[in-house]
Amino acid sequence: MNSKAVALQGGLALLGLAAAYITWQRQPELQAGEVFVLDITKNELQTLRFDDEEAKTWVELQRGSDDNGSFIALRLSERAAPAAKSTAPAPDAGKPIPERVVRGSEAARTLYERFAPLRATRALGVLDAAKLKDLGLAPSKKHITVVTGSGRRVFDIASAPLGGTDPYLRDQTDGRVFVVSRSILGDFQAAATSLVERHLHSFRLEEADRVSVTAGSAKKEYRVARSADGKGVEIAETGGAGKSDPTARAWHERVLGLWPSESLGKGELPEEGEPRPKLRLDYSAHGRSLGWLTIAEGAGPALQSVSSATPAPKKSFYASSEFTLGWVKLSGDSEALVAEGVKLAGGKP
């Protein structure tokens, strides 16, 4: 290929990248009746903040990045612990949940990008004080602050009235009122549950070709390969006969299906102290690390001496991985899962 052809191909490639960037930045088409509330691009948007004076909570969303790529960082305010469903006293009853920073879910990214630009289904214009009071906007106890490179805009937001479906938004800058999607208010109010990332990895088991299981000084490596029917994977200990181990496969599938009941913030430790690691898993493909997972036992009453007459309290377990910003508390009974993992590593449960 001569130099002219190389230059031509390079120029076409640059034009393609420029076109892709312009398309990504370009405002989407408005549907019939829609208007722009906030006419900004994704690059201009920096921070979203929702303040709820009634619930005495707030949440912030902003861009973050790590070795896994870009994500939405979610900062949650300190808040009261949820009331226990049972009438029996709960060990965490009355304990506040501290302010924390966690990885946002795909729903958090969708909500963040909804504001660049922010569209309304209807524009109601500037309304008088009586109408604003009827709509719950005078005064409003919920506010959204949008921070961009050129400044900040604050909006009052109120739930839909009885019989309605979509909330009302008022721009404090010029007083204009809009009707916006109900998912905006719903997502902000449910941020602690719906906007927090619960997955421990961004990859699937079938993407790996090696996984090692370590428990203390014991360690074993397993080979991962597509099953003959192409509907799953087979796992076999490396260096052995190479026979597929259905027990190991089922255990790894359960591990990758773990679902946290609570995500602690970046740098945050459980109240009982630093969890004690029991297992570590390392996943790789073609010699490249895909990720890792540490499962640890909580350093709570379960590890302290108790009298023989007192039933041993249930153990708590935590996990951290390449995809979490800190420790996450595992739901359900993880003790049996950990014991089986220690056996797979060649250790003693």
> How far is the first residue's CA from the last residue's CA?
64 Å
Spatial arrangement of strands, main beta sheet: 5-4-3-2-8-9-10-11-7
- How many separate domains? 2
User: Radius of gyration over alpha carbons?
Assistant: 26 Å
Number of helices: 7
* Unreliable spans: 18-26, 86-94, 302-306
Overall 3D shape: elongated
Strand content: 25-35%
User: What class do helices, strands and sheet pairing give?
Assistant: alpha+beta
Helix-strand pattern = HEEEEEHEEHEEEEHHEEEHEEEEEH
Largest sheet report:
9 strands, antiparallel
**Could you tell me the number of beta strands?**
19
Rounded mean pLDDT score: 85
Helix content: 10-25%
Describe this structure in words.
With 349 residues, this protein is an alpha+beta fold. The chain folds into two domains: 29-194, no CATH class; 205-344, no CATH class. Helices cover 20% and strands 34% of the residues. It contains seven helices and 19 strands. The strands form three sheets. It has a nine-stranded antiparallel β-sheet with strand order 5-4-3-2-8-9-10-11-7, covered by helices on one side. Strand 12 and strand 13 (218-226) form a beta hairpin. It is elongated and about 80 Å long. 26% of the residues are buried. Mean pLDDT is 85; it is low at 18-26, 86-94 and 302-306.
